[in-house]
């Protein structure tokens, strides 16, 4: 049976996953940037935030060692992954190029 995470990433629409933690400074910087990405791209992307402290199994499955780590999925496949904070335009370009 598919997990709810598998259902989320198994989508024709690109899904940007943000692995974050409440105690992480860079994660707090990234949050409003992702909000801007969503405002610019609207329904062309889904953005899902995953708290690594509350979802340790998922974080370890995807070998998330540092936060923030973003991953882009489409149709259940991981297309891109990067740790750290990126600017809005960089994130938008990555989503559009995939």
TrEMBL record:
<keyword id="KW-0813">Transport</keyword>
<keyword id="KW-0249">Electron transport</keyword>
<dbReference type="InterPro" id="IPR036249">
    <property type="entry name" value="Thioredoxin-like_sf"/>
</dbReference>
<protein>
    <recommendedName>
        <fullName>Thioredoxin</fullName>
    </recommendedName>
</protein>
<feature type="active site" description="Nucleophile">
    <location>
        <position position="27"/>
    </location>
</feature>
<feature type="site" description="Contributes to redox potential value">
    <location>
        <position position="25"/>
    </location>
</feature>
<feature type="site" description="Contributes to redox potential value">
    <location>
        <position position="26"/>
    </location>
</feature>
<dbReference type="GO" id="GO:0015035">
    <property type="term" value="F:protein-disulfide reductase activity"/>
</dbReference>
<keyword id="KW-1015">Disulfide bond</keyword>
<feature type="site" description="Deprotonates C-terminal active site Cys">
    <location>
        <position position="18"/>
    </location>
</feature>
<comment type="similarity">
    <text>Belongs to the thioredoxin family.</text>
</comment>
<dbReference type="InterPro" id="IPR005746">
    <property type="entry name" value="Thioredoxin"/>
</dbReference>
<dbReference type="InterPro" id="IPR017937">
    <property type="entry name" value="Thioredoxin_CS"/>
</dbReference>
<feature type="disulfide bond" description="Redox-active">
    <location>
        <begin position="24"/>
        <end position="27"/>
    </location>
</feature>
<dbReference type="GO" id="GO:0045454">
    <property type="term" value="P:cell redox homeostasis"/>
</dbReference>
<dbReference type="GO" id="GO:0005829">
    <property type="term" value="C:cytosol"/>
</dbReference>
<feature type="active site" description="Nucleophile">
    <location>
        <position position="24"/>
    </location>
</feature>
<keyword id="KW-0676">Redox-active center</keyword>
<dbReference type="InterPro" id="IPR013766">
    <property type="entry name" value="Thioredoxin_domain"/>
</dbReference>
<feature type="domain" description="Thioredoxin">
    <location>
        <begin position="1"/>
        <end position="98"/>
    </location>
</feature>
<dbReference type="Pfam" id="PF00085">
    <property type="entry name" value="Thioredoxin"/>
</dbReference>
């Amino acid at each position: 049976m598919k997990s709810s995470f598998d259902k989320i990433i198994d989508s024709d629409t690109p899904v940007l996953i943000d692995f974050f933690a409440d105690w992480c400074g860079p994660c707090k910087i990234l949050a409003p940037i992702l909000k801007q990405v969503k405002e610019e791209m609207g329904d062309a992307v889904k953005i899902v935030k995953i708290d690594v402290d509350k979802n340790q199994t998922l974080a370890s499955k995807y070998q998330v060692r540092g936060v923030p780590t973003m991953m882009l999925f489409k149709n259940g496949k991981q297309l891109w992954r990067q740790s750290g904070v990126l600017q809005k335009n960089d994130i938008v370009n990555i989503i559009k190029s995939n």
